Amino acid sequence: xxxxxxxxxxxxxxxxxxxxxxxxxxxxxxxxxxxxxxxxxxxxxxxxxxxxxxxxxxxxxxxxxxxxxxxxxxxxxxxxxxxxxxxxxxxxxxxxxxxxxxxxxxxxxxxxxxxxxxxxxxxxxxxxxxxxxx
Length: 134
Fold this sequence. Notes:
Blueprint: H1 2-5, H2 16-35, E1 39-47, E2 50-58, E3 61-70, H3 84-101, E4 107-116, E5 122-130
């Protein structure tokens, strides 16, 4: 009886389809960044407070790249999901990254790669998408 009431083992976890879609979005983002002359430094940096999708270098600037994707625009464009709360979280994780990795960059910025996978399969790079406290 209790087994019937227990949540499935994967409750709260992303489904395999969601994980695959996220991985595909990140691959597309990396391709776009490379085409724009970025050097990918690290992917999926994780710490106790969150994750950075992509850490890259754009010349002498270290760039923290947030990748957002949506299947369609029914609930808005992917860029709209990077709200103030998300920006603050990514900024805090970037601070941890800088403390742990101590990269040799004097300038930093936050970019967003937004992907909509509907018929057009739009992908857009938003450079300097917000100002963090770095």
